């Protein structure tokens, strides 16, 4: 049997294994309530462990009593089967792509017991005692050469724990066998990691049957270097640049998912030898969405798998004429979403409204009822639309009475809050979920006031009373504090969806008024923080797909419907409700479509006790936005603290990666959030970003997303990178220098700066400040720049002397900039351009 060998050097992870998939078993527990008091949003800064599902305790107590037995591994190689726990999986090589973990993380809608087996061989040239360190969130049992050496079962949900251990290695190959386990509850980090801490270099050795190890290495290198020229495609061919290194043809199996766990589209392509690119299809064929593309290369018994990102926006499908009238834009949106929207109840509602494809409508509604009855996480995102569907179609005769009876039973039997019994994994602890649960509870009780709701064993009228109290508190908190997940393109649409259902469907005038006020506030915030209709700014909670996916973000569609700015897309959350709602947003077009010589600064705070101060500067040439002095040095989550936008594609930001694996599942991840938060100071169109990365952090660099293909001109010189698109300019500086990524999926869009202590400058500009791009480059490069200790002094050609440091005050021309302790409503300033 052939073997494939990888080096294992000191203080490096053992990250090459044979893995036999994930064995899954859905679990049922005693249905109990959850006991919680305090701020729902505090998990954003304190971590998931703040809210532990009590069913997890029941699971752990049971599992710790079970003695885990070693499986038979006499015949293990890629393609061979493993039968375990009444199901069968296939052994395959695990390709880490920079991941130090053996990771099978994902999203499970119901509580699910996960088990996974992995095996590798560690080759030593002599008998020796070796030291290792194990990391996991769930439980790991480890056998070495047939003997159990470790059982480590912290079972901390999504919170990594570690333990050190020693192993006596024999000369030659040493078999390491791992059983990893956890209870999946919605988004679940399911992985283990073993680091080698010894001083002698070792090897990882894996059996591969009759397959050539040289061929596998060649394919691995080719897939590592595969890339798309741009992260964004709006027309034409979708081409993956991948060069087949083998003498024979290779088959690519591609799976497109329009959301990370959304609808799937599969296609296969044959790659001939020495082929430079693979045409996957036309944008229109592949559909609209921010896509997670999974690429498999199946070569004999080995499968190589890698994920890539792509934003597909077939612009020729979208209405090109933008009406000045809100009611016409609403009609255009409802027609477009009914035709091209995602296959969910929001689209089904619009299809029914148009009288189209009622069979599909009924199929979607019944599928939605199954999701709600199973109490899938995020079922509240769809459940809220069921009430609008009932209100508009129950008495029309379009659907059989049996469907309405199913809807009624679903409404009566739902779990509306964590103080009701349940054994599900629905997430209640964020502002967007809380709003929708309370909205659903009110609408359910309003619909069936005299019916008993079995889960809480109360009348619908009591649900109305409870929900009204909860909704009033929610709106009061929102009015006082804004959103903890500030400016989030991912979650503002969820809030808007809830506001619209309250505004349109709730009978209580006080709540309707509160919803209208919340809608007005939200559209004002979007108008102020967007650039030409794209909410591309600092965010309190964000994912890579929203950061890169401006054309397809739900907020983009909302702004298009409301003001004719941005663009229409097929997102259904909120857009479907807005297109049919009587609500009309206030006229904030003057905050979006700025005049030719207008600058705007908006300073405000959001979150509990105003925990984040926000600064947005924009004009018609660009936007620069930051969370100023937000918890500098603290551990990050999904907060996006500094961002520049010159166009929907010409976007630049800086972060400290939360993990090294691209498109990983971490929060923070490679591009979204920060492993450790920086200190950011901003004045108008310039921001200073300070990083001080803890020595314990494994990632000793920061980097910038700077997609070169989105700009007409780019110049990288010394510590600076400059970009131009139309009449807009940008400058990016890193004290520790810039390294352009030249391979893989971040080719020509990642600028890396090595070092734990670093200082960055992000500077927007335009033709009315500098008459030409070359003048801008020369002026910025020649400007005086000093680093004195931790202080950063930059003599900006327009703004003068700016002084920024990690701890000290931020000054411009000696004047301290008071960017903290703002108000929730904020301070808005406008003025005309300054010409150089």
Percentage of β-strand residues: 25-35%
> Rough shape?
globular
Alpha-beta classification: alpha+beta
Low-confidence runs of at least 5 consecutive residues: none
The portion of residues assigned to helices is 10-25%
Q: How many domains comprise the coordinates? A: 4
Biggest beta sheet summary: 9 strands, antiparallel
Give the total of beta strands: 45
Tell me what you see in this structure.
With 836 residues, this protein is an alpha+beta fold. The protein contains 18 helices and 45 strands. The protein starts with a strand and ends with a strand. The longest helix has 22 residues, at 460-481. 48% of the residues are buried. The radius of gyration is 28 Å and the shape is globular. The chain folds into 4 domains: 2-209, Sandwich (Jelly Rolls); 213-315, Sandwich (Immunoglobulin-like); 322-592; 598-832. Helix content is 25%, strand content 32%. Strands 1, 3, 4, 7, 9, 11, 12, 14 and 16 form a 9-stranded antiparallel β-sheet that branches. It has a 9-stranded antiparallel β-sheet with strand order 37-38-33-30-29-28-27-26-45, with no helix packed on it.
């Amino acid at each position: 049997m052939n073997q494939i060998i990888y080096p294992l050097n000191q203080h490096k992870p053992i990250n090459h294994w044979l893995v036999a998939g994930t064995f899954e078993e859905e679990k049922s527990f005693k249905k109990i309530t959850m006991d919680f008091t305090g701020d729902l949003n505090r998990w954003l800064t304190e971590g998931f462990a703040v809210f532990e599902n009590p069913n997890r305790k029941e699971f752990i107590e049971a599992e710790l009593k079970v003695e885990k037995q070693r499986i038979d591994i006499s015949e293990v190689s890629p393609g061979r089967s493993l039968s375990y726990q009444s199901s069968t999986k296939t052994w395959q090589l695990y390709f880490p792509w920079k991941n130090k973990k053996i990771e099978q993380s994902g999203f499970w809608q119901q509580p699910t017991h996960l088990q996974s087996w992995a095996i590798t061989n560690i080759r030593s040239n002599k008998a020796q005692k070796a030291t290792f360190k194990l990391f996991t969130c769930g439980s790991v049992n480890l056998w070495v050469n047939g003997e159990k050496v470790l059982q480590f079962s912290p079972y901390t949900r999504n919170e990594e724990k570690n333990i050190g251990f020693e192993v006596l290695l024999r000369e030659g190959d040493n078999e390491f066998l791992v059983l990893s386990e956890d209870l999946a509850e919605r988004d679940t980090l399911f992985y283990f990691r073993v680091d080698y801490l010894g001083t002698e270099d070792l090897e990882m050795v894996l059996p591969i049957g009759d397959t050539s190890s040289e061929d596998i290495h060649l394919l691995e290198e080719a897939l590592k270097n595969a890339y798309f020229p741009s992260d964004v495609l709006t027309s034409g061919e979708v081409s993956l640049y991948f060069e087949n290194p083998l003498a024979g043809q290779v088959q690519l199996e591609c799976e497109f998912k329009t959301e990370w766990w959304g609808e799937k589209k599969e296609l296969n392509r044959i790659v001939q030898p020495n082929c430079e690119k693979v045409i996957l299809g036309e944008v229109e064929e592949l559909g609209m969405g921010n896509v997670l593309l999974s690429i498999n290369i199946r070569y004999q018994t080995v499968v190589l798998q890698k994920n890539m990102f792509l934003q597909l926006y077939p612009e020729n499908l979208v209405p090109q004429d933008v009406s000045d009238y809100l009611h016409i834009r609403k009609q255009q949106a409802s027609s477009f979403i009914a035709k091209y929207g995602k296959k969910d109840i929001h689209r089904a509602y619009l299809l029914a409204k148009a009288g189209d494809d009622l069979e599909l409508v009924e199929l979607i509604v019944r599928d939605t009822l199954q999701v709600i009855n199973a109490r899938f996480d995020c079922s509240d995102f769809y459940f809220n639309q069921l009430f609008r569907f009932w209100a508009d179609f129950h008495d029309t005769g379009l659907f059989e009475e049996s469907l309405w009876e199913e809807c009624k039973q679903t409404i009566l039997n739902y779990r509306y809050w964590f103080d009701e019994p349940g054994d599900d994994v629905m997430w209640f602890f964020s502002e967007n979920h809380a709003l929708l649960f309370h909205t659903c509870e009110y609408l359910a009780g309003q619909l069936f006031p005299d019916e008993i709701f079995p889960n809480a064993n109360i009348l619908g009228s009591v649900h109305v009373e409870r929900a009204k109290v909860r909704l009033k508190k929610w709106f009061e908190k929102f009015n006082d504090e804004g959103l903890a997940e500030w400016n989030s393109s991912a979650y503002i649409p969820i809030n808007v969806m809830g506001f619209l259902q309250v505004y349109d469907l709730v009978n209580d005038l006080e709540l309707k008024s509160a919803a209208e006020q919340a809608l007005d506030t939200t559209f004002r915030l979007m108008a102020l923080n967007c650039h030409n209709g794209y909410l591309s700014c600092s965010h309190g909670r964000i994912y890579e797909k929203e950061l890169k996916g401006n054309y397809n973000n739900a907020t983009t569609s909302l702004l298009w419907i409301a003001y004719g700015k941005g663009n229409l897309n097929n997102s259904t959350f909120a857009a479907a409700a807005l297109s049919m709602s009587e609500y009309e947003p206030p006229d904030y077009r003057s905050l979006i479509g700025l005049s030719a010589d207008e600058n705007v600064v908006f300073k405000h705070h959001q979150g509990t006790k105003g925990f984040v101060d926000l600064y947005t500067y924009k004009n018609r040439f660009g936007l620069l936005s930051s969370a100023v002095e937000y918890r500098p040095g603290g551990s990050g989550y999904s907060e996006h603290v500094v961002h520049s936008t010159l166009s929907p594609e010409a976007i630049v930001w800086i972060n400290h990666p939360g993990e090294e694996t691209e498109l990983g599942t971490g929060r923070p991840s490679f591009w979204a959030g920060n492993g450790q938060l920086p200190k950011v100071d901003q004045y108008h169109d310039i921001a200073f970003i300070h990083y001080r990365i803890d020595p314990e952090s494994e990632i000793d660099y920061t980097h910038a997303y700077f997609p070169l293909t989105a700009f007409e001109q780019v110049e990288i010189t010394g510590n600076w990178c400059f970009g131009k698109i139309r009449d807009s300019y940008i400058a990016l500086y890193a004290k520790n220098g810039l390294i352009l990524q030249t391979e893989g999926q971040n080719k020509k869009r990642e600028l890396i700066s090595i070092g734990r202590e670093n200082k960055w400058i992000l500077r927007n500009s335009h033709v009315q400040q500098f008459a030409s791009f070359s003048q801008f480059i020369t002026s910025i490069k020649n400007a005086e720049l000093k680093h004195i200790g931790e202080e950063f002094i930059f003599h900006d050609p327009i703004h003068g002397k700016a002084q920024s440091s990690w701890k000290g005050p931020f000054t411009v021309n000696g004047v301290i900039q008071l960017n903290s302790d703002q108000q929730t409503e904020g301070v808005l300033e406008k003025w005309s351009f300054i010409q150089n």
